Amino acid sequence: MISIFSVLVGGLISLMIMFNGSLANSLNNYTSNVIIHSVGLVALIFILIFNREQIKFKKNIPVYFYSGGAIGVFTVLFTNISFASLGITIPLALGLLGQSLASILIDHLGLMGGKVVKFQRKKCIGLLFILVGIVVMIAF
């Protein structure tokens, strides 16, 4: 069931890139980013109200754990910028490559308190497939 959610998220990300990029093309990158995140905030508030949940902050949480929101802003901004000239497929494929490389590094080093999962050469096969796929998409 969790795998199905992951596939669903992949499809939603493609839709999100299309909607966000089209909005950015209609307005501009910064205005669209404000609108995108404002709509997301309103949606989340409705979800919290519907589920009757309260926002709770805990002490002793590293400050960098809160940086996900800022990373989200830059992710949307950079995707919107690239969407205008590359469409949906190439930024998504390049993003997959970036996610894969970053996650391999984070796992290998056990960054931010994560479990250490040492790099294995067989992961190079997956990275190679991603690279070949990107080259094929760009070339053809």
Give an overview of the whole structure.
With 140 residues, the protein is an all-alpha fold. The chain has 2 domains: 1-87, no CATH class; 89-140, no CATH class. Helices cover 74% and strands 0% of the residues. The chain is globular.
Task: Describe this structure in a few short sentences.
This protein folds into two domains: 1-87, no CATH class; 89-140, no CATH class. By secondary structure, the protein is mainly α. It has helices spanning 2-26, 29-50, 68-86, 89-109, 123-139.
Topology record:
Elements: H1 2-26, H2 29-50, H3 68-86, H4 89-109, H5 123-139
- Poorly predicted residue ranges: none
Radius of gyration equals 18 Å
User: What is the terminal-to-terminal distance?
Assistant: 35 Å
- % residues in beta strands: under 5%
Main pleated-sheet profile: none
Total domain units = 2
What's the β-strand tally? 0
Shape: globular
The SS-based structural class is mainly alpha
Query: Averaged pLDDT, please?
Result: 93
Number of helices: 5
* Series of secondary-structure elements, N-terminal to C-terminal: HHHHH
Query: How much helicity do the residues have?
Result: over 70%
Which key features would you list for this structure?
single chain; 140 residues; mainly alpha
